[in-house]
Amino acid sequence: MENLLRPLIVVGGSVVLTLVIGWATDFLLRKADERHHETPLWGLLRRGRIPYQLLLCAALLRGSYDEAQLLESRREGIGQALTLVLIGSAAWLVIRIASAIVETSYTRYANARAHRDPARVRRVRTQVTLIMRVVSAIVGVVAAASMLLTFPAFRAAGASLLASAGILGIVAGVAAQSTLSNMFAGFQIAFGDMVRIGDTVVVDGEWGTVEEITLTFLTVRTWDERRITMPVSYFTSKPFENWSRGTPQMTGTVFWHLDHTAPVDAMREKLRDILRQCPAWDGRAYDLSVTDTTPNTMQVRALVTAKDADDIWTVRVTVREQMVGWLADEHPYALPRVNTADAILPPSQNQNGHRPSQDGVPHQRRFHGSTRPER
């Protein structure tokens, strides 16, 4: 009877104690979150309740397993498994706690500077994201190494691995040259303020917004909801347009090809009226000028301003559409036209054998007393 109750008490007691401690900790964190609305730290710490309970359970079972006297022949294997679970859950919990602390710090910073310096907030967000990825990678590597060192075979091979670490490092460096270059490029982007999450960029002729930055790749979300993924080393080795650098204010252009008789002065007044009714125009400046001419048309350019890239697009399409509609309704003669005239053939016969008449119309040949054109 004792042999049956002992493992039941040990294992059951560990599980029950884990659930009680986990519930009590979660209850305290929930109460703290309700009292402190100014910080999301306590609510974010609740995300770690699963690895926390797993860590508690593994630690309790690992410490009391010898007292249970259960499966004596499998003691080493079960102890090894509990140790691996203990290391893995501890690494998981450390990552969750670090993520909660970093995200809380970023949230406070963003709330304080979101309206005054949005570019700085995006820069810090990019740095925080990459730092968390580095921390997660380091904790994962340390946890994996700790798990491997729990096996006697790996401990015995540790000396030989350390002896050949120099050669392995050279080989790994050559083999992972591209990966390492992308990793260092990721740090350069994060702390060099080249491009940030939320920036509007133009890459290979594609306009979009930076959606994600990792240590090895960067994702750009285009205006039509496509995702362009490219290595981060691209942004350190090739030129690209970053419309969010400095101030987000932008100046846009709108072009029309019109007839030479187009009323330019009236178009300037109409441009002013269109911009005054366009909410996306920031009111800084506007202009309309004739920038080029051809034998048939002239090129008219309008300059407009807006507070960011999204608004400048709205202003440009609004001005283009309403100006064309106004010209078509009020000044149709200003729209480009194609001048045509009757062709004048040379005095000699053309290649089909037609002999032109005085008015340029070819003479017709007679067939059996009737007149019809030659086929």
Brief sketch in words of this structure:
By secondary structure, this protein is of the alpha+beta class. It contains twelve helices and ten strands.
Q: What profile does the largest beta sheet have?
A: 5 strands, antiparallel
Strand order of the largest sheet: 4-3-2-1-5
- Uncertain regions: pLDDT < 50 for 5+ in a row? 353-375
Task: Report Rg.
Answer: 38 Å
Class inferred from helices and paired strands: alpha+beta
Alpha carbon gap, first and last residue: 117 Å
Number of helices: 12
Query: What overall geometry do the principal axes of the alpha carbons give?
Result: elongated
Measured by DSSP, the beta-strand proportion falls in 15-25%
Mean pLDDT: 76
Helix and strand run: HHHHHHHHHEEEEHEEHEEHEE
- Quick one: how many beta strands? 10
Question: What share of residues is helical?
Answer: 55-70%
How would you describe what is shown here?
The C terminus is likely disordered. By secondary structure, the chain is of the alpha+beta class. Helix 1 runs antiparallel to helix 3, helix 4 runs antiparallel to helix 5 and helix 5 packs antiparallel against helix 9. The longest helix is centred in the first third of the chain and has 39 residues. The protein is 55% helix and 16% strand. It is built from twelve helices and ten strands. The strands form three sheets. The protein has a five-stranded antiparallel beta sheet. The chain has a three-stranded antiparallel beta sheet with strand order 6-8-7, covered by helices on one side. The protein has a two-stranded antiparallel sheet with strand order 9-10.
